[in-house]
Amino acid sequence: MKTNEIIPRLNEVFRDVFGDSSISVTEKTTADDIEDWDSLAHISLVAAVEAEFGLRFKMREVSAMKNVGDMINLIAERGR
Amino acid sequence: MVFSRLFFIYIFLPVCLLCYALARGTKHKNTVLIIFSLIFYAWGEPVYIFLMLATAAVNYTAALFIGKYQGKVGDTAATITAVVYDLLMLGVFKYSGFILENINALFSSSLPVPDIRLPIGISFYTFQTISYIIDCHWEKVKPQRSFKDFLLFLTLFPQLIAGPIVRYSSIEKEINERTISMSDVSYGLNRVALGLAKKVLLADQLSLIAESFLGNIGGSTMLGAWYGAIAYAMQIYFDFSGYSDIAIGLGRVFGFHFDENFDHPFMCRDITEFWQRWHISLGTFFRDYLLYVPIFGKRRKYGGLFLVWLCTGIWHGANWNYIIWGLYYGLFIFIELLIGKKKMKVIPVFIRHIYSKFIIIIGFAIFYFEDLGKLGTFFKTAFGFGKNGFIAVQDKISFVNNIFLIAAAVICCFPLIRSIKDITDRRFAAKATMSSAAAVVSALLLVITSIILVDATTSPFLYYQF
User: Fold this and answer.
1) Which of B59, B170, B189, B424 is a plausible cystine mate for B129, CB 3.0–4.6 Å?
2) pLDDT of residue B458
3) How far is the C-alpha of B244 from the C-alpha of B249, rounded, in Å?
């Protein structure tokens, strides 16, 4: 899957999870850019992304995601 | 060896710094650091130092296997072996007495309870080796080929005994390549002086209040119980963050950049935020290696939360009060999660401050009482069901006698230095004045701390027991 196909869908997931329609993510967006994105919100986010793109992240991947770009790379590889 | 002893400050450290400065090249400097670290540890643990060395050897070897069989069965086997070994050693030396006592109580059995003394620092260095092994398994870091360099990471004396829990990934590059500037050395030494002052001038003095009111909870009044708990909360903060200041400062003097362990935790507005500011290296350890463990299916958020707080409690000590303490925090973080960040923000800030400080102070009281009967007495007393009334003359006397200490301690909970730096950094002249002033203040703090240490029998740092 291509990055430009992923970003709009991913953005919807972010808006949903954080209940904020003004969010617009890029590859460089990190947890510091979204105030409510802490370790527990990260679990909800990961679950929502997994449901949207039909894939499972490994624990090492969940733990290592440093920005949205990391997430997009994994989705590009294995997402649907 | 303890940082807050004159022997450490005026003999061990200067000799170590001198040898370090005289050694040419990073290789020799590393040798100096390892030798001094082993002496530092052996000073208090002449026997258990062999346990630490064995742990180093096991984890070093396991990581080599992980690297050799990357992604194959051998990788997984080596990872599991090392983590099981680490947890087993921690279990045997820290928890076997507690586990057997509880089995005996539960089944009315009479299994012999071994009397094992806790090896100093085992909780901290075990977590460092676990994080190293998992990072190797996750291919986040490359296994260290040199045993000497691995030993340096593990035994580096500033952080060996009570954290911060330093990740191998954060100092990997600095092991063989680090530059030490004069500003690093001056920053580091200022930080050490600040940490010593927090420990000796604040924590050790506050401990006298905490001891006299919580230590004798049966004789305390309602106000006395709260006063003791507040003093204890601040004592633990200055003790542990003081230790972290010294560790980070010494690390900097030797050219290492350790991550911060505290960020003015009492400035938090809720319990979730408190744990993002308190003992940060422990929180991030559990976040990275436990929170996302995929065993709870759809309930992984709540399952992970529960597991993290259960383990946080257990990690702190082999006693029920620590487990209650961990779950107690987990409960409030769970409640805050249910309320949601947006709704939490609607609550006025001062109410959130009162709420969070209230929960934290009670939390530290739970932390204090290893004897659950006494913890019960504390709760009764603190909530007005004690037998000594609301206030007594000894409360007033202690408060009046310690008014300056308490005022200084409360003020030091605020991010003062950062605020001053923010202002002075804007102008060059102010910045220069600030750095000279910092040096003078640090020297002054060191002198006062030393004078107090001459005839004080200071207690070791609280976190030495964990």
Assistant:
1) B59
2) 60
3) 8
